[in-house]
Specification:
single chain; two-stranded antiparallel ribbon
Length: about 300
């Protein structure tokens, strides 16, 4: 038996040092999954949060705010996606490990139509992966060394701890500052600024708060004089705005850093978004009438 940071490792495990370091993290994930999910009679995973919502009208029930899932439009999306045919080509390898040209083109249109970019976003400036965590992990690996830290604005998504630390061994450092202050900080120290914009289309007006600030994408900021454009990146995905957490679709946009794109593409095969999800995401984004309806409806709930 050996001990690594309080975790006891069986002698026969024969794990590497970094493998041993992740044993305890794996156990924590098991406990988290056990807390989040239950098994129904058909042995399919059913979110406790979703079941709680379905029965929330009962006085004894409550809705957990501990998991970032939007279940309100699952029925509408299930109906919409059920009409998207599966083609024989979807059973083969996709065209690109970093997202099909069709999906990247549809995403570029989304960013250009809704994020008000200072410079138009092009399909060649992005890498698609199997979820936003699958984007953050290689970005951390490409931009930081082991034991480095990422200052992250508070409050922040607790999953960043695993996204940054599990493989890259990068620490998350809670911080408070304005976007422009972060931009100046990153420029001064020549480090990357990574903007998590997964809730970009899920903003709501607050009539009672006259000082509330609207969402502003980093893509829309004229960064000249603030930060080198090679240091600007955003991540986006299906999980929040499109209520599709388990579809596992994420994307990195880096408009000026070809080397960053090359580094992320080198490991894209490990985070390849499935052809089925690629096609569903593309179909929805290309269906602009439905997309506009969906975005408008989510703001009215």
């Amino acid at each position: 038996m050996s001990s690594t940071k309080g975790s006891t490792i069986a002698a026969g495990s024969k794990l590497s040092t970094r493998g041993e370091a992740n044993v305890e993290a794996g156990k924590k994930w098991e406990k988290l999954v056990e807390a989040m999910f239950i098994r129904n009679q058909s042995k399919r995973n059913v979110s406790v949060l979703y079941q709680g919502y379905l029965t929330s009208l009962r006085p004894t029930k409550s809705i957990s705010l501990g998991v970032a899932e939007n279940s309100l439009f699952h029925t509408e999306l299930a109906d919409y996606f059920s009409k998207v045919p599966v083609q024989p080509a979807h059973f083969a390898y996709g065209s690109d490990p970093w997202g099909s040209p069709a999906l990247r083109s549809a995403l570029a249109n989304l960013f250009n139509d809704h994020f008000k970019p200072f410079r138009s976003v092009e399909s060649t400036q992005m890498v698609v992966a199997s979820g936003v965590s699958a984007v953050v992990d290689p970005v951390a690996f490409a931009t930081a060394d082991s034991s480095d830290g990422f200052p992250i604005g508070r409050p922040f998504y607790t999953g960043f701890h695993a996204d940054l630390d599990a493989r890259s061994k990068v620490k998350s450092l809670p911080s408070t500052a304005t976007i422009r202050a972060y931009l100046h900080f990153c420029q001064k120290h020549q480090i990357h600024f990574i903007s998590d914009e997964v809730y970009a289309l899920s903003t709501f007006s607050t009539p009672t708060n006259t000082t509330s600030q609207p969402f502003v994408s980093v893509l829309s900021i004229d960064s000249r004089g603030l930060i080198d454009s090679e240091l600007l990146n955003i991540v986006y995905g299906m999980s929040k705005d499109l209520s599709s957490n388990e579809f596992r679709g994420g994307v990195l946009v880096s408009q000026s850093n070809v080397d960053m794109m090359g580094s992320i593409k080198s490991v894209a095969v490990f985070n390849w978004c499935s052809s089925i999800v690629d096609n569903l995401w593309t179909t929805l984004l290309e269906d602009k009438p439905f997309l506009q309806y969906y975005v408008s409806e989510t703001k009215n709930v």
